[in-house]
Amino acid sequence: MNTSVSFKNINRIAIPAIIAGIAEPLISLTDIAVIGNVGRNSVEALAAAGIVGSFLSAIIWIVAQTKTAISAIVSQHLGANRLHAVKTLIPQAITFNLIFSLLIYVVTAYFAEAIFSAYNAEGLILEYAEEYYQIRALGYPLTLVTFAIFGIFRGLQNTLWAMKCSLTGAVINVALDYLLVYGIDGYIPAMHLEGAAYASLSAQAVMLVMALWFFFKKTPFHMKLSFNINPQMRPLLLMAANLFVRTAALNFAIYLANAYATDYGKSYIAAQSILMNIWLFFSFFIDGYANAGNAIGGRLLGARDYRNLWELSKKISLYAVLIALILMAICGMFYDEIGWLFNKEATVLALFSSVFWIVLIMQPVNAIAFMFDGIFKGLGEAKYLRNVLLVATFLGFTPTLLISDYFGLKLYAIWMAFFVWMLIRSSALVIQFRRKYLNKEV
């Protein structure tokens, strides 16, 4: 098997993964841009969409870690020429995702008011958040089954199929956002925040249908469920469990940031919603190379090709940092104009502009952290990733936020805490990778 880590082979996986990865945050960014300019109660609606978007991302990131676990196991078996050993695992993993997502929907939909009250939402913001979430949450089963299938595609070293699904979903979401939020006089009533939720739900349904088509037509796997549990199911669930804990810690940091911003006032949480969604957009953009590291790293480990594994780490880190620098340069040129895309309130824009520079200078550090995140996931090193996130969140992010907030730094406190968080994550992963794999490269 060709184990080359050439620019061409890396980008064959990374570029479609970038496009697929940015589609999901693009859906949220579109919702926020449309909702933030809707006119009536736009600041409250924007704040509600930001809070719900953060919570949805938190849940999906946590439970979608089976996608990463599936990708790692499939890629390692591909590298070892043993795909036949995981054929019964695939339908079992997809079924697990479906059942788990239904359970999450039932529980969170019932406690929606309590959940968003915990974000310090109240009054109209809380009312909007609850209404918006009740519709968006219907997409959990659609999204989590789709993500499981995307993990299979990535394990097979193919991110093109996921890109086609995600891109189609993003286009449908953008079109329906404008159609349903603003309406058409005499034909379609303006549904405002509810319209954005239905637009996202429709996009998720289309993505699932397309993913199933590629699964049945293009992969060697099937959906026939065997009641004899595949031997790889236990390692998959163990890996996913470690990643669940890791992602729960990650989302605790995001929750804390949004809770503090909401407590500062509606203009602060509106600005924070824009900042956070741009940060997530950048993260998913850069994460395309992390996906390549995940897929190729797992295959190289299966083939015991440590020399190319080391080369892979150097090359994708370089490419990701270059992408980060390009994003920084583009945003630097349009620094003030970017805020206007999402909201026209002077106070919101002033808060956004005062802090956006911190989001930008973080990007090269983020790039390194995400690259090694991806590689470690492909190698099955979920336990170490879990421990790094716990340390970064509870010994880095949280103390920095509490101390900075004490001195009244508000949004500055939040993004200084995120910067410390990413510095700890990136440095710990680089040190561990060098320690463990540098001497194996020959």
UniProtKB/TrEMBL annotation:
Alphabetized InterPro entries for the sequence: MATE_fam, MATE_MdtK, MdtK-like
UniProt topology in membrane: Multi-pass membrane protein
PANTHER family: FMN_FAD EXPORTER YEEO-RELATED, MULTIDRUG RESISTANCE PROTEIN NORM-RELATED
Superkingdom assignment: Bacteria
Locations listed in the record: Cell membrane
Membrane-crossing residue ranges in chain numbering: 12-39, 45-64, 85-112, 132-153, 165-184, 196-216, 236-257, 269-290, 316-335, 347-372, 384-403, 409-431
Source organism of the structure: Autumnicola musiva
Classification lineage: Bacteria, Pseudomonadati, Bacteroidota, Flavobacteriia, Flavobacteriales
Protein name, per record: Multidrug-efflux transporter
Keywords recorded for this protein, A-Z: Antiport, Cell membrane, Ion transport, Membrane, Transmembrane, Transmembrane helix, Transport
